[in-house]
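Memo to structure team: turn this sequence into C-alpha cells by end of day. - J.P.
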Amino acid sequence: GSCGPGYASPLDAMKGPREEILYVPCIYRNTGRKIPDFLATVDVDPTSPCYSQVIHRLPMPNLGDELHRSGWNVCSSCHGDPTKSRNFLILPSLISSRIYVVDVGTDPRAPRLHKVVNPEDVFWKCGLGYPHTSHCLGSGEIMISTLGDPAGNGKGGFILLDGKTFEIKGTWEKGDEVPPMGYDFWYQPRHNVLISTEWGIPKFLGYGFDPNDLGKGRYGRRLNVWDWSTHRYIQAIDVGEDSVPLEIRFLHNPDASEGFVGCTISSAIHRFYKTEDGAWAAQKVIQVPSKKVEGWFLPEMP
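Reply from structure team:
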C-alpha cells in the first residue's frame, strides 16, 4: 500500500536513495551587510551539470532574522499516513523570533515563502522567544524549542504549531517549572522521555561570545529531562559549569535508552542513559584538548 513521508525505520532511511538537493540557511546578520538571510538550494546530484552549485536563493522579507535551524512539517512519525506530505520547511529565526514556513513541494528546486509567523504571536501566545530547533511530531504538530522569553531572559520552553495551518497553538510544556535555558532537544516516546539542552541567555549571547560572561551562570550546563506524556519537566542532569551542552541525539534505534550530547565550551561529549531506577544520568566519554591559538580573545580555543 501507499505510505506517508519518511521511512519506516532509521535502517530503511540509510538504504534509501541519495538526496539530489540540499536546503541551506545562509545568514547575513552581524556581517556588516544589510541584506536579508536567504535559503540556498544546492544541487548535490553528481550526474547534474550544476553539481555542487547554488541553483536558487530565497531571500527572507526582513533584515536581521538569523536563520539557524530548519525542520520538516511532517516526519517519519507519520510514515503510515499517506495523506501527509513532507512539502514545507520550517525556519525559526533565532534573533527576530519570526518563524518562516517555506513551500518546497510545489517546486523543490525553487522554494517559495508560504507563511510568516510574526514575533508578537510567539511572544503573546507562548511567552517565549528566540526559537531554535524545529521537530515534527507524530501528532502532526510542529514543536520548536526556545532559548528565552520575549525580554531575552533564559527560558527553555517549546512552541507548538498546527501542522496544516502553521498557526501557533500554544506551548508544549505543562506545569510551572521550566528550565532556565534551552537549545536543542530529542525525544524517545518508547521510553516516555524528551531531553533538551542549554546554550545560554539570549540577551548575553545575541551579539556573540564574550568570555566575560563565563562563570556568571549565563551559559548552559544541564541536560533537562521531560516526561513525554505529561509534558512536565522532571529532572536536570548537570554536566559542568559553562559546559554548554548543545546538539543531542538518541541512538537511531527507537528502542534505545541512550544517546550522546556534544558540549561546546568544555569540548566534551557525554553519553546519557536511563538508569535501573528509571531516572537518567550522563557520563563524559570523550574529552577534546583545547588548542593554543593566536588572534582570538583567549589564548586557548575549546
